[in-house]
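Reply to dn_fold:

You asked what the input looked like. This is it:
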Amino acid sequence: MDALLTERTRRTSPAITLCAVLLTLLILPTSVTGSGVALPHIGQDTHASLDALQWVVHGYNLTFASFMLACGSLADLIGRRRMFVAGAVVFTVASLVSAVASDIILLDLVRGAAGVGAAALLTSGSSILATTFDGAARTKAFAAVGIATGAGLALGAMVAGVLADTLGWRSFYGAHAVLMVLVLFAIPFMRESRNESAAKVDWAGTVTFVGSLFLLMLGMVEGPQWGWASAGVLGMLVGSVLLMALFALVERRVPHPMFDLKLLRNGRFMALCLIPVVVTFAFVILLPLLPNYLLVANKSSSQAAGTMMLLMTLPILITPLLAGRLVKWGWSNRAVFAASLVCLTVGVAWLALVLEPGVGAGALAGPLITLGVGLGLNFGLVDGAVLDVVPPEATGTAAGFLNTLRLGSEAVVIAAAGSALVNLMQNWLNDGLDRFPAYRGEPVELANSVNSGDLTGPLSKLPENVRPGFFDFVTDGFTDAWHVVLWASAAICAVLSVAIYVMLREPGRQPATADAPVAAGPKKNEVTADTLS
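and this is what came back:
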């Protein structure tokens, strides 16, 4: 037995572990950003309805968010490496099937399965790094996490556009499968860890939480299609609220809850967890939706739209290093986070001011670069800081909660923003579409098509002399809808930013656990000049 343990210890490698997790975190964001760019190509190939086509993106986002907290809790129980293995296998197989699927229903289902695998990979990967590295090494590892995830966000839309335009959309998912095989080869070199005090799976908490988030997402997505006042949508939204209330009740009563509600009393923990929510409203909603605006209003190709998004995503590759420099020059973590939140709020408001049909790279550069800087200043730092304010045995649950808020807000807000754009477009079309009697389609069908990045199809059904006026009418309405969504996002970001800044006060006091403060002293999550420079 001792020889076996020695062999297992010898085979573990922090360097290989870090590379494998970073490659995983490079791959996962591309499914969020790239799938939206590939949608027009998927639609042309599968001849799917717009509603079914949108579930290629929504299915992945929904399961990714819904299973995040459950996967984090299970990772603590059964082992973080085991959960990572399960997630890698599921994601790889789902990506491979996505690359060969010819039926849109099958594609939607396997994208949902890929989201489950992604949830397992993200939560267990964060916990593996937290238990593999310590001190300054951990801070550097999570700074690398920020850069890797940023690279995935930066390259996802462009890579998807290039692959879809040249090799076809299937190559995008095939590339995911190939890269994940490299991750699978690295798994034997990872160290296993778990929460030894965990007794059993909290199935009641898992089912109620996943069910609540699933119904909320489903209701948000289907609201514009079925009608917000329809019995089905109202039933799903009410059911979501009831299941979340039941989840809170269950977690108070079970001896080993999936999520310790005492963590919610930790103000700094909650403030750090809310920072990704601001990121969602300012930055993440643009990743799948803004390329569609460029496809329609600028008549861009998928490749050109994806390349334009680099203005927003490339700064993420270097600004985590800037955060380290700011700390070296005497900035506190709170000040760095405040600068990040200001950039995010200003960036989305600035974008609302300049967005118009035919907008060029020069006008977009300012707001998009500002948004990228805002995200890069907190990327990685938030993850490391959150895991430092909880006990070591709860790192999986903490990572699960952080990423549930991150991915949950992304899934819900992207769905809500998409629904708002469809509703606003539908109202615009209802008020003026009768000026174009040559168009035979329904307003809701046209609104869905435009929001999916396709105006070429509807234009092709019109006489040549009608197309310019129809294009101007539709793109003006689409732009107005975008302005409403962007200004609403800016207002929400401003309110949340103020709240977060207030909750992060008293940097000299930091909770050691969810409910027990410690005396003032050096903060474990304080970034030093050496850790990120």
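The longest helix spans residues 395-432.
Hope that clears it up.
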